[in-house]
Amino acid sequence: MPPTGDADTGPDPAGTSARTAERLLGTVGSERRPATSAESVAANSSWWDADADDYHVEHGEFLGVADFVWCPERLREADAGLLGDVAGRDVLEVGCGSAPCARWLSAQGARVVGLDLSAGMLRYAAAANEATGIDVPLVRANAERLPFATGSFAIACSAFGAVPFVADLDAVFREVARVLRPGGAWVFAVTHPMRWIFPDDPGPNGLRVTGSYFDRTPYVEVDAGGNATYVEHHRTLGDFVRALTGAGLTLVDLVEPTWPDGLTEEWGQWSPMRGALFPGTAIFRCRRAASDQSPS
Question: Which of 10, 145, 198, 251 has a 20 to 30 A CA-CA distance from 130?
Answer without folding.
Answer: 145
